[in-house]
Design a protein that fits this description.
With 330 residues, this protein is an alpha+beta fold. 31% of the residues lie in helices and 34% in strands. It has three domains: 2-111, Lipocalin (Beta Barrel), CATH 2.40.128; 133-271, Alpha/Beta hydrolase fold, catalytic domain (Rossmann fold, 3-Layer(aba) Sandwich), CATH 3.40.50; 278-328, no CATH class. The termini are far apart.
């Protein structure tokens, strides 16, 4: 009996020491089609086992909860289900070497303890203060969702009545500047339009930066509700005349949704919106990404066949429970 107890204690101690060896901060550079993206993983060993969070500093995203993480015999596996991210790696005593996968994108990724210097970005297109127009941070309510959204309103310098636009971002959690890798396309666009005499409201997506709410699990129609609230708030401002929406990517889907509800909306502009139905867009995106990653033709064909079956079910089966059962059978 004593021998058995000793063995069990040794096994428990060994497991604890194994988890401890990967505890702390790990840093990596992810190559995304030639652009380098810093990723930082924080691993904690607690009474209930290991847990972790993920940072993507270049996307201004911090503290993303890792909802599934396992470490055993040097193998580390973690995932962030909400964003479809998974990492499988092996700890060699100094580094964790493995494969990063997200939304069909796959790449080798090595984590180390070495601190990564903040890269220097040359973004000559980014406008710099002082601006020749007024800029103010604002908040507005979405009463339907019960949340408050944060944004920035820019107005020409002189008081008057000006046409105005709401900028609606694309897919993924976006701040008011739609910042990615220190590019700020919505800041650049709002600067150009305001200099041309157009008022602009841009805002943080729900659950992002200063906006309330939860991004994860929100639908395109939820984001359309936010955009509709932005339009309603903008109309109430004393210097605003005609109001429209400029929607980028998924925002190019949201803008027509809002226009179908808001008959008084004066105009919409679609930037890189969809010209075909959503399932066709996703099928083509998957194909092109897979080809760029060197996926074998047979594997790509199998994947596309399964994707087509999934989309057809989503289109044909209206009852959610029936749809779930049908998808489980695939």
């Amino acid at each position: 009996m004593k021998r058995i107890i000793i063995v069990i204690l040794v096994m428990i101690l060994a497991a604890g020491l194994a988890a401890t060896e990967i505890e702390g901060q790990w840093n990596a550079l992810l190559d995304v089609f030639g652009a380098e993206l810093r990723l930082v993983v924080h691993i904690t060993d607690g009474p209930d086992g290991i847990s972790g969070t993920l940072d993507s500093p270049d996307q201004d995203a911090y503290g993303i909860e890792i909802d599934e993480i396992e470490y055993d015999s040097g193998k580390l596996v973690f995932s962030v289900t909400d964003i479809g991210l998974r990492y499988d790696g092996m700890f060699d005593g100094e580094m964790i070497r493995g494969i990063f996968n997200q939304g069909g994108f796959e790449a080798a990724l090595v984590f180390s303890r070495e601190e990564l210097p903040e890269p220097e970005y040359d973004r000559p297109q980014e406008p710099q203060e002082p601006f020749p127009y007024r800029s103010q941070d604002v908040f507005f309510e979405n009463p339907q969702a019960g949340i408050k959204l944060a944004g920035t309103l820019t107005l020409p310098q002189e008081e008057g009545i000006y046409p105005a636009v709401v900028l609606v971002s694309g897919s993924g959690p976006q701040d008011r500047n739609e910042e990615l890798l220190h590019h700020k396309p919505f800041l650049v666009l709002s600067d150009h339009l305001t200099r041309a005499g157009i008022a602009v409201l841009r805002y943080d997506d729900r659950g992002v930066a200063e906006s309330d709410g939860v991004f994860s699990g929100s639908t395109t129609f939820d984001f359309a509700s936010d955009a509709q609230s932005a339009v309603a708030w903008l109309r109430q401002q004393k210097e605003i005349g005609r109001v429209g929406i400029i929607g980028h990517s998924e925002g190019g889907i949201i803008a027509p949704i809002v226009a179908s509800e808001e008959k008084e909306l004066d105009f919409i502009v679609l930037l890189a919106g969809t010209g075909v139905r959503g399932d066709e867009v996703l099928m083509k995106q998957t194909e092109l990404i897979s080809i760029s990653m060197g996926t074998e033709k047979d594997k790509l064909a199998q994947s596309q066949k399964l994707n087509r079956m999934v989309y057809d079910l989503v289109l044909d089966v209206e009852d959610k429970d029936e749809l779930t059962k049908a998808l489980d059978k695939l």
